[in-house]
Amino acid sequence: MAAKKSNAYREDEHIVENVELNIWEALIPVVALVGMLAYNVYVFGDNAIGGSNQFILLMGGAVAAVVGFFNKVTYKQMLAEVAENVKSTTGALLILLMVGALAGTWLVSGIIPAMIYYGLQILNPTIFLAACVIICAIISIATGSSWTTAATVGIALIGIGDALGISLGMTAGAVLSGAYFGDKMSPLSDTTNLAPAMAGGELFSHIRYMTITTVPTISITLLVFIIIGLNLETTGIADTASILSSIKTTFNINGWLFIVPLAVILMIVKKAPPLLALLIGTLLGGVFALYFQPDIVAGLTGSKVLTFESGYKGILNAITIKTSIATDNPALNDLFSAKGMAGMLGTIWLIVCAMVFGGVMDGIGALSRITKALLGMAKTTFGLFASTVGSCLALNVTASDQYLAIVVPGKMFSKAYEDRGLAPENLSRTLEDSGTVTSVLIPWNTCGAYHSGVLGVGVGEYFFYAIFNWLSPMTTLFFAALNIKIRQLAKIPTK
Q1: How many domains is the chain built from?
Q2: Which listed site, 174, 186, 205, 259, has its alpha carbon 20 to 30 Å from 227?
Q3: Would you say residue 304 lies in a domain?
Q4: What is the pTM of this model?
Q5: Is residue 306 part of a domain?
Q6: What pLDDT does 79 receive?
Q7: pLDDT tens digits for 211-220?
Q8: What CA–CA distances, in Å, run from 353 to 446, 450, 454?
Q9: Parallel, antiparallel, or unpaired for β 323-324 and 337-338?
Q10: Structural domain containing residue 316
Q11: CA dihedral in degrees (313, 317, 318, 321; nearest 10)?
């Protein structure tokens, strides 16, 4: 994932407890939020993400605040938690802005069109979705970041899938399945480091233990996408020749353009900060645009000739606002459009409002109370695993933050696993299987908002096809229910 806080900071993050609050009071804001969001989506449909959902999240925060006031929580304390939550997303918000900028310069430079051009010649609908999973898994393992994967090859694959006539939801689901598999298994990923840290385990032992549930899950995911591909009916194949001709006519397509995405991936692999890598990728995209696509850059400003002024204005427009490049093929006109940094403001707005709701919920002690209630239901080993999964899912919904969905249950459940003689790898694996990968399935979670914004596909459209993401918690519960590979401590602690 994209870095938002240091692991040390997350491990030390406090969890607010409130003895005055009971479980039913803690659930009032959750029930109110879900009800309001459901009705809002019913009324606005796909347009709900445009602003009304953001206000509903603030209303959910207001309901939580009222509950807090009745339980002796001060306005100052709630506001302090909101401030901490919003502060924690600073890195993510800046990355979102930079992703918008990068998409703009990678479009006008011909990088994204080149990826689509060559991709159409290599991929076809039969293997496309499975190839998306594999490609994104490899990139995500190498970079340790599902966010970077989605912002680079993910955008290109969405374009290729659209050109092939494949549903955007299918393509996005395949991209995210592969990206989160790689993110989860990469030692470079911050969530992969955070989970064992919270459970008291060791990184590489955690990764090895995750393969027990993760390999079957990704195998099933690939099998499903292969079956879908074999039965896929599209209209894209017949139009491929004309699409390739239009791309070649509009852009100067050549292999040199791939230097930029390869440079970005190399920087991430070398552990350069994602924000820095995206910034350099944006600037390089601008330079390559001026060199390889001078007519397109000049055309963005209405000029026929590239000058210093028109070049400067054209690149800044690509970085900051919506730009579109017209071709002689109507099917490509929507595809060759980027929204720049301005296009990410709606997603940023959503994340900030989600952090307000999560901050108030933490400030009144509701997150702690909900998690403790789930822990109290863990009477058996399977119940303990199920409570952990439920807690992670609840935190992804209520706190709207992937890291809190790992930190809070990790802190709350670590002693319970130890008391039952279970090795910490059981907890860390369950945190990843249910906390890391399901965050992208919640529209108002930072991950769901980010990926739907970057890929231009709503969570509702890709939810069903993000097979790896919703299958992972089911797999971990299946293994727990059958007591398969449940590692025990070498010595069960005495109380």
Answers
A1: 1
A2: 186
A3: yes
A4: 0.73
A5: yes
A6: 92
A7: 999 999 999 9
A8: 10, 14, 18
A9: antiparallel
A10: 92-343
A11: 180
